[in-house]
Amino acid sequence: MRGTTARGGGRADRSGSTPPPGAPTGAAGPTAPPDPTPLHAATPLTADQLRTVDAYWRAANYLAVGQIYLLPNPLLTEPLRPEHIKPRLLGHWGTCPGLNLVYAHLNRVIGERDLDMIHVTGPGHGGPAAVATAWLDGVWSEIHPETGRDAEGMRRLMRQFSFPGGIPSHIAPEVPGSIHEGGELGYALAHAYGAVFDNPGLVAACVVGDGEAETGPAATGWHSNKLLDPVHDGAVLPILHLNGYKIANPTVLARLERRELDALLRGYGHEPIHVDAGDGYDPAAVHQAMAAALDLALDRISAAQRAAREEGSTERPHWPVIVLRSPKGWTGPAEVDGLPVAGTWRSHQVPLAEVRDDASHLAQLESWMRGYRPEELFDEAGRPRPHVLAQVPRGDRRLAANPHANGGRLTRALPLRGARHYAVPVERPGTVAHSPAQTLGRMLRDVLADTAGSRNFRLFGPDETASNKLQAVYEATAKNWQAGYLPVDEHLARDGRVLEMLSEHNCQGWLEGYLLTGRHGVFASYEAFVHIVSSMLNQHAKWLKVSRELPWRMPVPSLNYLLTSHVWRQDHNGFSHQDPGFVDHVANKSPQVVRVYLPPDANTLLAVADKALASRDLINVIIAGKHPSFDWLGIDDALAHVERGVSVWEWAGSDVGGRPDVVLAAAGDTPTLEIMATASLLRLHLPELRVRVVNVVNLMRLLPAEEHPEGMTDRDYDAVFPPGTPVIFGYHGYPWFVHRLTYRRNGHPDLHVRGYKEEGTTTTPFDMVVRNDLDRYRLVMDVIDRVPGLVDRGITLRQRMQDQRLRHHDWIREHGEDLPEVREWVWQW
Amino acid sequence: MRGTTARGGGRADRSGSTPPPGAPTGAAGPTAPPDPTPLHAATPLTADQLRTVDAYWRAANYLAVGQIYLLPNPLLTEPLRPEHIKPRLLGHWGTCPGLNLVYAHLNRVIGERDLDMIHVTGPGHGGPAAVATAWLDGVWSEIHPETGRDAEGMRRLMRQFSFPGGIPSHIAPEVPGSIHEGGELGYALAHAYGAVFDNPGLVAACVVGDGEAETGPAATGWHSNKLLDPVHDGAVLPILHLNGYKIANPTVLARLERRELDALLRGYGHEPIHVDAGDGYDPAAVHQAMAAALDLALDRISAAQRAAREEGSTERPHWPVIVLRSPKGWTGPAEVDGLPVAGTWRSHQVPLAEVRDDASHLAQLESWMRGYRPEELFDEAGRPRPHVLAQVPRGDRRLAANPHANGGRLTRALPLRGARHYAVPVERPGTVAHSPAQTLGRMLRDVLADTAGSRNFRLFGPDETASNKLQAVYEATAKNWQAGYLPVDEHLARDGRVLEMLSEHNCQGWLEGYLLTGRHGVFASYEAFVHIVSSMLNQHAKWLKVSRELPWRMPVPSLNYLLTSHVWRQDHNGFSHQDPGFVDHVANKSPQVVRVYLPPDANTLLAVADKALASRDLINVIIAGKHPSFDWLGIDDALAHVERGVSVWEWAGSDVGGRPDVVLAAAGDTPTLEIMATASLLRLHLPELRVRVVNVVNLMRLLPAEEHPEGMTDRDYDAVFPPGTPVIFGYHGYPWFVHRLTYRRNGHPDLHVRGYKEEGTTTTPFDMVVRNDLDRYRLVMDVIDRVPGLVDRGITLRQRMQDQRLRHHDWIREHGEDLPEVREWVWQW
After folding, report:
1. What is the pLDDT of residue A279?
2. In angstroms, what separates the C-alpha of B813 from chain A's closest C-alpha?
3. Is residue A804 within a helix (H) or strand (E), and if so which, with residue range?
4. What CATH number should be reported for the domain whose range is A419-423+432-629?
5. Exposed/middle/buried for B146, CB within 10 Å: 0-12, 13-18, 19+?
6. Quick one: A4-14+36-403 is in which CATH superfamily?
7. Is the domain covering B40-409 a CATH 3.40.50.970 domain?
8. How far is it between the farthest Cα atoms of chain B?
9. Any B CB within 8 A of A215 CB
10. Per-residue pLDDT for A3 more than 50?
11. C or N: which end of chain A has fewer Cβ atoms within 10 Å?
12. pLDDT tens digits for range A477-526
C-alpha cells in the first residue's frame, strides 16, 4: 500500500524559518511499511504559469491581510500610520494563505481543462481569502460596482470586511461562489457531495481543514463516496489541508504518522496524493507539487468516470484525496514579541494585535504586506496586473461565478401531479384509517418517477424510508448503493435516488448541498432524532435569511423535513425516542424562513406536501404519523384547510353559529384523535354544550401577523378563538410552546394546553396520551373544570371520566393493549 | 500491513443455511495486499468451557426470544398456544444473539483474569439481551426479588419486557450494568472512553454496531484513543459487530473489502483482530475464534499498559479492536413465509410477526425456542443449571453489578475551596470590569490541582479552553495529548486532565461516561455550537430522569455546561455564531433535572459554579461571558443572589420601598449592562420615576413552583414583579422564552421582553444590542411607552433616545467602534 507523493521540482529551501506543521516525533512501529515514494517529481508549471500562480497567490494574500487591518491606504502608497489601521482587528488569518494557494491552482486547472467546478471551503472562517479571490476574479465588482477592481474599490473591499455595515468575517452567503458557511465546522464534505449528486459534469473541490476533520460529521462525511454514482453524479475532490493547528491546539490528523493517516484515508475509500515540497515550504516547490497533485487527481477522476461511463465498470473507484501540508499563517510574521507565530496556532486570528499602539507591530505589518511586492501585483490605479489574472477562467467558469453556487439560477420547478391525484376517499370522517406517510409515499414515488430524466429530486433518510412507510418510492427508484451486492438485497441500485445512511448529519448536509445547487428534496427522519441536526438547521436558516436579503442570490427550493415515527407512537422504542421539541427550536429562527405543519390526516398531509414542494427559500417542517390513523377530511376540505391553516370544523362541533361554550382545538394527528373523541363524549353526555372544534395545520398561523408572515391578524384569531371562551388545546408537542405562540392574543388567558411532558416509556398508544394528560377522559374533565357553570352539571360525568382512566390503567397492565372502547372507537356523528 | 485473524479450530459447517453477512462481491483492486493470515488457529476453550459458553449463550438467546413473545409458559412446559403470546410484539431481536455471544465470552475472561470490566453496548435496542444476561447472572433478581431466578421469575421477566407497567425495550437506566442508553446511536465509544479515563484498572468492552458506525459521532469517537493515557487511564476494547444490516439496508462497513476495513481501523489507531470461523457460523468454531480473539486482545492491552506503566514507553499503542461478523438474527428463523430472515435485515425487530393469528408462525416460534434445548439450560423449577452459570463472575465482578456502571456508588465529593476564595473586589458596582470566565478559570484551576491525586475531575472542551479564557487551569494540569510533540507546543502532556478535541460530540460523550462512572466535570463550549449536542442532552436528561426514579441507582455528579463566547459577543465571528436557544431546548426536559443560570458578573459566576459542582443528578447550564464586563456584586451579595435566584437590586433603583412605577429586569450579563444603563438614564432624566431593578440569575425561578422544583410561588413572584406594574425585561436569549416561563403569572400582561431575534452579524458589541432592540436607548423608549402617564412627560427624552440610536448607527459606520459615551459608560450612582 504505497502512497503517492506529488513532489515539486523546485529546490526545497531548508533554511526557511517556518517550522513544518506536525512532523510527528513518534518512532515508527514494528510493522511500518516502506515510506511512500514520490510518483511525481514533475514540474508541470511552465515558468510563466509559475509566475502567474505565485503572483495571484501573493495578491490574494495581500488583499486578505489588508482586509483584516486597513481602512485607507490600500496600496501602501504612503507609509503605514496608526490611523490607517482598523480600531478593532477582527478576522482569521491562519487559514487564508492555504486557501488562497488552493484557489490559485484551481483557477489554472479550470482554464486548462474547461472544468465546471465549485469550491467548498470547510475552513470558512478564512473569509478574507474568498473575498480577495472573488474580487481578483472580477466577480465581486460585478455584484458591487462601487467596489471596482481599482484602488478605491480595494479600499472599500478592505474597509468593509468585518466592519459595521460591511460583510461578515466568515465565508457566508455574501460571498459569491459559496454554498457553505464556514462558521460551524464539519459539513464541507456533505455539502460538496450534495452539490455533485446528479451533476455528472461538476467537480466540487472541497477543502477540509484538519480542525474540521476532528468533528463527527466530517469523520462520517468521508463515507459519502459509498453513495456516489460515477455515472450520474459528479466528483468531489477533497483537499485535506493540514496546517497543523486549531485555535490553540495541534490537530489530530496532522500529528499522525503518514502511514496511519494514509491508512485512514484509504479506509475512507480514497487514494491519498501528498503535496510534498520539503520542509522549507519554498513557494516555487509547493506550487509545482500542488500543480502536479491537482493534475494527477483530476486525471484519476476523469479515468474513474470514463471507466464507469464508457467501459461499464461497476467497481467503486478509489477517488483521489489531496493532502496539503502548509504552515498555519504561512507568509505571515514568523515571530512576534519573541514568540513563534507563522506555523503555529498563534496565527489563527490576528498575528499582530497591537498595530495601532505598538510602532514595532505597525512596522512589522508594513514589512509583511510589502513582502508580497504589491507594486508587482497592482498597477498605480490599483488594478490587478494582467499577469496576475492570466489564469483566471472566464465568465461562469470562475469559481465565484459558477451558477451551481447560486443554485436558484438553475432551479427548475418540480413536476407535481397535485394532491388530488393521491387522495384517499373519505365517505364518513373518523371511520376509515390510512397511513399518512404511506399515502405520501405514493406522491413521492411519482415525483421521483417524473424526475427520472431531469434527476433533480431526491429523498434522504437515515435508513428509515421503509420504516417510515414511504416504500412506494421504490417503485420509481432505488436506494443508492455502490458497495458489494448480495442476492438477498432489495431496492438497491447504483443510480438510485434515495440516499440512506445511518447519519442524520450526512442526510442533512447532502440535502443542503443539493438544494443550494438548485435541486429539490425531502429529508424523512424520526422526529426525536432530527435533533441530531439542530445545529445544522441553525446554519441553514441563517444562510437562507441572509440570502433572501441579497438580490443576486436567486431563491432555492425549500428544505423539507418529514418527521414521522413521532413522539406519540414509539411503541417499539419508548422514552428515548420521544421528543417533539424540534419545532420549538425551528420556531426560534427567522420567521421569514420557517414553517411548521401538523396535518391531522392523510389527505391534509398530501395538501401540505404539495405546497411545500413548490415553495422556495423556506424550511418546512412537516410532522405526520406513519401508522394508520383516521381520515377526517376529503381532499377538497384538506386543500382548503391547508389554505386557511386554521379551520373551524363545523361538522364536528355542536356550535350552531353563536358563541361556543368551549373551543376544542388540536394540532397533530394524535391530539386530533383525542380532541375528536372528547367532542364526541361531550356531545353524547352534555348535548346542550356548544362545542366548537378547531384544527390547526399551519402552526405559525397562531403567531401574530406582525411576528410572522403566516401569522393571523388578531381579528381572525378572535373569530376562531373568541376571547372569554375557554379553549382546550390538544397539542402534539410541549404544551408551553402553544403559549409561546399565543401569549399576545386577547384570548390567551382562556387557553389551556395539553401536550407532551417527558412522561412516557414503551407502552400502548392510548397509555401514552394518558400518561401525558392528553387523553379524551382527561380533556373532558378539563372542559368541566373550565366552562363556567359546568362543574355542577358535569360532576357525575367527571367522576366517570376519572374512573375510566383508572380502569384503563389496570386494563393495560392486565392485557397489554388498550381498552376495547378506545381501540374500537369511531366517529359516529 | 497484515491483519490478525482469530480463527476457531472447530470445523466450519459450510452447509449452514445462514448466509454470511456482507461478503463483498467487488473485485480486489490492482494494489491489493495479500489477505490477512490467521495468527490464531487456536482452540483456547476446553471442552467444558466450550459447553458452558455455548449453554450460557443459548440460555440468553432463549430468554431474549421469550421476552419478545411470551406472557406465561416461560419454560414451554406445555405446547405453545396463541394466548401465551403477547398481543403486541415489540422489541429488536436482530442484534441480540451477537450481544449475548459477546457477553458470554466476557464472563469467561473476567473470571479467568479477574478483570474489572464494564460493557457498553452500542446496539442498545437489543434490550432483551442485556436483561437476559443480568437475570442469568443473578443481578436482576437481587434488585427485583419478585423476579427470582426460577420459573415464576422467568415468567415475570418475559412478561414485563416492553409491556405496560414493565420495562422499556432498549438498554436503559432500568438495566443494571449499563451506562449507555441504546436508543439513539453513535455515542458508545465516547461513553466507553469517558468511563475509563482516570480508571486505570478498568476495561470497557464496547460493542459498536455496524449501523452505529455510520454515524458521525461514532466515526470520530474512534479517535478518542488519541487522548487516552495508558498510564492513568484504563482501556477500551471496541468490538465492531458486523451483522451486516441496519433497519432495512446493508451497512457500509460490512460491505467494505477487508483490506479497506482494516485500513480504516488502522487509521483509527487500532490493530484489528478478526473473529473468523468460516462462512457457516458453526457455533463451536465461532466460540473458539471469539475466545482466541478476546485472549489476544486482552493480552495486547496488558502489554501496552505494561509498556507504558513499567517500561516508560511513550508511544501511543495501537490498541486492539475485535471485528466480529455474525449473521443478524443468528439462530432465529432462517426463512419466514418463503423469505430469508436470519442473516438479513428482516431479523431487525420481530422475525415472526403473526404468531397469534398464524398457526405456522406459532409452530415456527415454538421450534425456534425449543431449538435452544431449554431443558438442558434450566431445571424443572426454572433455575439455570450449574453448568450454564459456571463462568459467571462473582459479586461486583459481574458485568451487571460492576459499581462503575452505577457510578454514584463510587462518587467522592469534590474538594471545593468556596467561591469567596476567588472573589474579585467590588468597591463600587459597575465601575471595574473582570472577565467572568477568567475568574472562574482560577476556581477550576484549584479544583484540578486539588484532585491531582484523586483524579476525579476533568475539563472538556472543543479546542476552546484558552479562547474561553479558562487558561488558568494550565497552572494545574495540561491538555491531554498522546501524539507527537513539537518544540512549539504549550500546555500539552500525556497525563493532562483537560480534554480538547474539535468534536462537541466527543466532549459531551466523554463527560457523560465520566459522570455516570461517578466522577465530576465541566464542558465549556461556545454557546451557539452546543446545539451540536442537543440530541445527546435529550438522552442524558432522560437517563437522569429515569435514574432518579430507581432507588438502586445512586446519584451521580451533575453535567455542568459552561456556555461562554455567547451570542452578544461574537465580534470575530458574526451571525453564524449567534444562537442563544440551547436554554429553550434544555427547559423542555424534565424539570427534576434541568437548571439554567445566567450570572451577571464574575462573583455571581463563582457562586453559581460552586453550587453546580456540588450538585448531583442535574444538568446545570451556566451562561457567562469571557470578555471583561462590569462587576455588580461583591461576593457576599453574589452568594445571596444565587441563593435567592431572583433579587431586587435596591441599590440600583429609585424605588423607595413603595410600589414602583416600572420594573427593569435582566437575565444575562449583556442585558444586565443595558438594563443598568437604562436605569441610570431614567434616574438622570426622570428622577421622579420609581424604578425597581431586578436581576434573575436562576432562570427556572421564573416558572411556577408547581412546574419546577426551583420555581417561585406566585406570592414571591408578585412581590418582585407587582401585578399591574410594567416590567421591561432584558433577556439574554429569545424574548418569547421568558413568556414561555411566565405566562401563568399574574403580572404576565405587564411583561415586555427584549432579547435576541436573529438579527446580527459581525459588528460592535453595542451595535449587536441595538440591532436586537435591547439597547439602553430603546429600553428607555419602552419605559416611556408603557408606564401610564409617561408619554407626555417623556416625549422629549423619547426623541433624544431615538436620535441617539440614529447617531450610533452613523457613528459606528464611520469609526468602526461604539459611541464614546457607550464605551466609557460607568455606573455613577
Report:
1. 76
2. 5
3. helix A795-815
4. 3.40.50.970
5. exposed
6. Thiamin diphosphate (ThDP)-binding fold, Pyr/PP domains (3.40.50.970)
7. yes
8. 97
9. yes
10. no
11. C
12. 999 999 889 999 999 999 999 999 999 999 999 999 999 999 999 999 99
